[in-house]
Amino acid sequence: MAVNKRASGGAKQSRVTVNNAWQAYLHHHKSSARDSLQRMLANPVASAMTWLVLAIALALPMTLYVAMANVKQLSQRWDQTSQISVYLHKTVSAEEAQALADKIRTWPGIKAVNYIGADTALAEFSEQTGLGDVLTRLDDNPLPSVLSVVPDLHDNSSEELAALQMRLQQETGVEQAQLDMQWVKRLYEFMSFGERLVWALALLLGLAVLLIIGNTIRLAIESRRDEIQVIKLIGGTDAFVRRPFLYTGIWFGLGGGLLAWLVLSIGLWWLAGPVERLVALYGSDFQLHTLGLGDSLLLIGDGIMLGWLGAWLAVNQHISRIEP
Amino acid sequence: MTAIKFDRVSKRYTGSQEALRNISLEIDSGEMLFLTGHSGAGKSTLLKLLMAMQRPSGGQLLMDGINIGKLPNSQIPYHRRRIGVVFQNHQLLFDRSVFENVALPLRIEGYEQAELARRVRASLDKVGLLGKEKLNPIELSGGEQQRVGIARAVVNKPQLILADEPTGNLDPALSAEIMHLFEDFNRLGTTVMIASHDLELIARMGHRVVTLDHGTLVGT
Q1: Measured between CA atoms, how close is B89 to chain A, in angstroms?
Q2: Of A70, A88, A200, A324, which residue is most buried, by most CB within 10 angstroms?
Q3: What ipTM does this complex have?
């Protein structure tokens, strides 16, 4: 061993060059990541339990989110059928009806106005019902002309819709204005409530994930108290002590996220069959909204982020208390 | 050249008597000295001040001209890397091999693997445990465990070795062996300070002896 006489100057007199220091830093990251994973796998039952709890906490809000996405998709189709049917008197000519339609189009809160003439209505009706033969035997067309008014649902409250219906009713030539699908509006209200519910649940369960990971890390720190003391005594920095625990948090988060993704994917796959058959019965082209790449990355990324954050909070709180 | 200078250093723990009172002491670079005194005389406190585990309540403690008592927390780890410390209960970690125990200071400093392995083996060779690097320290005898502790203390070639009762649990023959190991490192230029109350052994070794009594320096 060489005689070891060095000049003064604390941190500067490191015997490790900058290049080596960077490599050593990466090496410690690598070894911390590997060691913490190995420690976790050495305790498979306990780790699996933690992963499962985290998976449930992460999967719940995501399940609601996917459910909301599906309801939204459905309601967007219904949105188009939400309309006010304005039945016109038989005496109203096609020109008068078109003029009325043009007039209504200038009103605020109107998305579209479609004129369906009595002849067109009859043709559509016979086509849809297959009663063409019967209808041709009728002396005259029993169907009225209709203006189909599509209100702008997002800007209108139910009161405004009702007012619009009243206004339409009072136009000359109008026999009856019938408001359809009022309940779609209610569904929208329900969905904005549902969206907030998803957020609230996500926040609460995110907090739960932080607490679960924080507590797990706290126990891990306690069980390695001696090691932490020794490392601090021989010159380990706080960052050096912290690193393996942060990786533990990341592994827990990643495991929980992956498991949550797996559970959700299996659940959606299990639902896909019945949903497809149900949809086929209604002749709809509805597609079950499954976990896309973005959603999957969000779910797993959230897991990792919460895992890291939970570990960071726990480590910062507990490691400073362990002094040699 | 003065390596360590205690300048009227005192230490009072909250709610108790003064553990150290007005200590003035200079230790030369490359010196070997013993610190003795009854239990509770302040030996451990003195070592803790050097390790920056405690800060002096009064006076100045300088190491290479740096005021240890005023060291910011972020600098304390780097200060400790310049000191190799040996404990009575050797503070080994039983969840890893002898090799990994000795390698710990080098891992903290970030040595690359080949250099690290070379240094660990050299250090284990020095304390006569080269063949036992793969064992768990729990499989070793008390004397061997203490030597692993010494190997860990010297592996990063510290400029100062501090030992707190390093022979406390060992029989006289083993104790002498351990003390001679410290002498070897001292001969290579390392400053060595050993707290011990094995007065007979200390007397035979013929180095400077500093005695504490109730927190006061009574003989240097």
Answers
A1: 12
A2: A88
A3: 0.89
